[in-house]
Amino acid sequence: MDIVQIISFLIGVVLFLSVVFLIITGRLKERYSLLWLASSLFICILSISRRLLEYISYKLGIYYPPSLLFLAGVLFLLAINISFSVTISRLSSKVDTLAQEIALLKENKGSP
Question: Would you say the C-alpha torsion 67, 69, 70, 71 has a positive or negative sign?
């Protein structure tokens, strides 16, 4: 293994352990952590074997293997954005419902 592979493997391990620590301390919910855990494992696996990266790239029709890593990063960010958009939409609907319920409660409280 060369130094680049070792550093990228260590980055994957540190990312994985950081996510696990955030889950244990309750600062990150499990459902939001799945993409982070998957990406850290992906980094570790691809950093261990350069041949695997080249093989997957070849099978996908990507002729420059590091482009696969770039593509994976972009897809990861897209997945995170979609996940957060769904969560924000759900929370926005809940906030609207709560605001309407509070308005009704305040109105009922004011009348005799």
Answer: positive
